[in-house]
Design a protein that fits this description.
- By secondary structure, this protein is an alpha+beta fold.
- The chain folds into two domains: 37 residues, no CATH class; 130 residues, Mannose-Binding Protein A, subunit A (Mannose-Binding Protein A, Chain A, Roll), CATH 3.10.100.
- The protein is 29% helix and 26% strand.
- The chain has four helices and ten strands, in the order αββββααββββββα.
- The strands form four sheets. It has a three-stranded antiparallel sheet. A three-stranded antiparallel sheet has the order 5-8-9. It has a two-stranded antiparallel ribbon with strand order 1-2.
């Protein structure tokens, strides 16, 4: 019973659900996502590995709103240049793309000069809000993203309340 009350207290703050981000991450409300501002640059592999070691991934983008909001967030919150790695990578043969966080590849905003060659990765260009590509060895700025674990609010609360009733 004490555990379930503690879990509910983590999700509520004066009647509101609060974000639950990994350690060091903070919520960007417009994107309903948690971000870790690294202040670092790195090649694509080291940036991706760093983010995964902190409980996140390089950012994924799933619609035009997210693309514009992420570009605005990068521009206003950071002073690290105008090119940021995305967590998109091509695998195997042909233009088959995957997000490192496992979410669907349901939106594309490639620049006309992008490469689909293996080892090339898209980045978000803040000036155009397009996704050109660069060789993975290129040093670019990056931030890490993680889902706000309270973003599945109603489902999580419903499941938590059902589990609480079953454990009492």
């Amino acid at each position: 019973m004490k555990t379930s009350i503690a879990a509910l207290l983590l999700l509520f703050k004066v009647g509101e659900i609060v974000a639950v981000c990994p350690d060091g991450y903070s919520l960007e409300p417009a994107l309903q996502q948690c971000f870790l501002i690294t202040g670092k640059t790195g090649n694509w592999s080291s940036a991706s590995s760093f983010c995964q070691s902190t409980g996140g991934n390089l950012p994924s983008i799933h619609n035009a709103f997210q693309n514009a909001a992420l570009a605005k967030f990068f521009r206003t919150a950071l002073n690290l240049g105008n090119k940021f790695w995305l967590g998109f990578y091509s695998c195997c043969f042909g233009p088959v793309w995957f997000w490192t966080d496992g979410t669907p590849d349901d939106y594309y905003n490639f620049a006309s000069e992008h490469s689909e060659a293996r080892g090339w990765h898209p980045y978000l260009d803040l000036d155009t809000q397009k996704w050109p590509t660069a060789e993975g060895a290129t040093e670019l700025a990056f931030i890490c993203a993680a889902p706000d674990s309270a973003s599945t609010r109603s489902t999580d609360l419903h499941q938590l309340s059902r589990r609480t009733k079953h454990t009492q």
